[in-house]
Amino acid sequence: xxxxxxxxxxxxxxxxxxxxxxxxxxxxxxxxxxxxxxxxxxxxxxxxxxxxxxxxxxxxxxxxxxxxxxxxxxxxxxxxxxxxxxxxxxxxxxxxxxxxxxxxxxxxxxxxxxxxxxxxxxxxxxxxxxxxxxxxxxxxxxxxxxxxxxxxxxxxxxxxxxxxxxxxxxxxxxxxxxxxxxxxxxxxxxxxxxxxxxxxxxxxxxxxxxxxxxxxxxxxxxxxxxxxxxxxxxxxxxxxxxxxxxxxxxxxxxxxxxxxxxxxxxxxx
Length: 269
Description:
This protein is α/β, with parallel strands linked by helices and about 270 residues long. About 40% of the residues lie in helices and about 15% in strands. Helix 1 (about 5-15) packs across helix 4, helix 6 runs parallel beside helix 9 (about 245-265) and helix 8 packs parallel to helix 9 (about 245-265). The radius of gyration is 17 Å and the shape is globular.
């Protein structure tokens, strides 16, 4: 993401406090006491069929946590449905890609003083029941990022052979360079806190596919990560960022991004 783009949207985000469209106050459950500065960020592109159900699930499992939907240039009713379900919506002027949309949410979090961010996908793959688990795990003072893995313990997530092969390859590469096991390098179900949020909002965040390359980058910059087991569901529309010819493009770009990550100078501070 360019500096000009970041500065332009940072100023826009400052002008739109989340509290304006928050849902009515609810009784805080004991399991989520202490997470008053938490924000859930959901990048969304043409998800009118799924976003309402996703937001309803979040309200059942974490009713007191505000949700920001970053509408990535959708041509359908995604922003309207999101607002109707109590989420704040920031709309990008055109489809900018998953990484840019996600980073926009983190810029908003930094500008508005959120100390913990949970990122989720808009298609319903990420089970909101695990939000509490991820937030409780991120409280560990030795952790900066918690990643929900669909492959730990007895989880048997089914996917195509090529996707599984890609996860295996990039998971092993990330494990090698991080010195710890990375079982799910493409998981977009994560919780981040403190300086990790500021890092994602900065210039070093990968704009295309923040997967194994991002995990390696976090390790090189001294951030502590941990995976925890979660359940993920197949995409209801069988949509994926890595299908057809996009798979070849993804593999090429990920290898290139990992090489660049290993060669580039570490950020100061």
